[in-house]
Amino acid sequence: MIQRLLIFLTLLLTAAIFARLALNYTEHTQLSKLATHYAGQGPAELGAPNLVTAVVVTYRGLDTLGEVTVLFISAAGVGLMLRRRQQVSVEAEDKKPASEIVVTAAQLLLPMVFLFGVYVFVNGHLSPGGGFQGGAIIAAGSLLLLLALPGAELRQRLIAVTESLSGFSYVVVGLLGVILAGGFLDNRIMSLGTYGTLFSAGAIPIIYTLVGLKVGAELSAVLGRFRDTGDQ
Amino acid sequence: MTGLPLSLFALTTGLALILIGLFGMLTQKHIIRMIIGFSLMDTGVHLVMVAIGYVTGGTAPIINDAVPAADAVARVVDPVPSALVLTAIVIGLGVTAVMLAFAIRIYQAKKTLNIDACSESKW
Question: Which CATH architecture best describes the domain B6-59+70-117?
Answer without folding.
Answer: Orthogonal Bundle (1.10)
